[in-house]
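Q: Entry one of two.
A:
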Amino acid sequence: MKLIDLLHRWTGGLIGLLLALLGLSGAFLVHKNAWTLAPHADDRRLDDISQLATVTQMLMADPASRPQSITYASDDFGLLRLLYTAGKGAYADQHGTVVLQWNSQWERPELWLFDLHHHLFSGDAGKAVVGMAAMCGLFFVVTGLLLWWRTRKTFEWRLVPARMTRPAIIRHHRDLGVVVAPLLLLSLLTGAILVFRPMAALLFGPDAPAQIDRSLAAPPPLTARLAAHLDWARMIVTAQERFPDAELRSLTLPRKDSGLITVRMRRPQEWLPNGRTTLWFAADSGVLVAARDASTLPTSVKGYNLLYPLHAAKVGGLAFRMFMTLSGLALTLLGTLAVWSFWFRRPKRRS
């Protein structure tokens, strides 16, 4: 138990601030659509497929001003998000009129905060660091519960420490940690698995990672260049005809010379905000190449697709968003006070 206590304290003292940063940014991102300020953000989502097809054709028709991707309006955010190269982007209303533009993610707090939380502004390397921090957080929760059990009879609920002394901070840290442990486990476990897909084996079995990779893979690349002029409206109509009950979520141009235009849709039974129901169209002709119905995916893959909605509180309404906000704020408090007590409130050694 002494070894566990030593590892818990030293690891917390070293990465507590990183976990606090992830917790605080996550608490803000849970409510991102509510505090993103832009004209027409409160508009009701349009589900008229002919209108969506017309708007898509208008936005994608000119190769010189064509965005790399369109994310369509949702029930809680009434704007289209257009992303271009070099970090540029724009918001457009559901009739295709651009209402807000930016030349860098630093001009939009919702964008740089998302990058901070997911990548620490460092791309894939930062994403790996975030995943390792989440794994350390899981270690803290498990070992913290073991260490709390010895002192369970002294449990006392406090939102903040009674005093800013090391014993009071440690006692508060221990008791608050056990209260929010279920929420922290949910946040940290889902976050770690989303970064390190092989960890899905912990929840869905040893074959799950390979099955997820196979099921979510795109079709083989095509040797096709993106045509200057395509019938974009017809692609949208084709997607809706293939999945009549699905909500149109995004359209993305080919990546890494794949030769495939990707359209994502969300069927009613899906929790994932942008869905996993996907259609691929040839970049040179706009002909449908392949389609994937999320309702037919293996059970382990469907389970994996639930992780992000749970992590980001995209289900459960305001009540679940508040629970996940509590998780983020608790992680912030636990992380900062752990570092404070470890580095600045250590007892002085007697000579």
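Q: Entry two of two.
A:
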Amino acid sequence: MKTNTKQISKFLSLILRHNPGKIGLQLDENGWADVNELIYKSNTHRNQLNIEVLKEVVRTNDKKRFAFNEDDTKIRANQGHSIKVNLEYTPIQPPEFLYHGTVGKFREDIRRKGLLKMSRHHVHLSEELETAVKVGSRRGVPIILTVRSGEMYRDGIEFYQSDNGVWLTDTVPPEYIDFQR
């Protein structure tokens, strides 16, 4: 039987980023879940997991959404949480430009308000244009925004980089966004 890693990845995103209580799971203050508890509680809710399946999902996820600790006894989502966790990221200088993919229906709100984190902990930005196109394409025809992240950083706005390479910041004011596409 082939493992449906996409379906399991979606389930893990729900549980580790948004609603661990759905299966009665507790995350620690840094977003880590005990692997054995996750497996047990997932299996009691009809989601068949084992350590091999978890390792395959972590290893093969194209966006590297999840990570194990050093001894594979804990697992967490790398970013994108809507629940309170402290991912312990250290501020870091970003590249001069970063990208954000969205769709046209949000363009005017972004022109007025900038990029807001909404229900998540941070605004997500990418270093590669192709990644922003892929993200924007999930909701329709993509609009790619260029963020002048180097200028933001020099103006005192902090940036972080998650373990999977996603750039994070609290907000992107509209004056730092170029709307070329």
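A: Comment on entry two: The CA atoms of residues 25 and 86 lie 17 Å apart. The chain has a mean pLDDT of 90.
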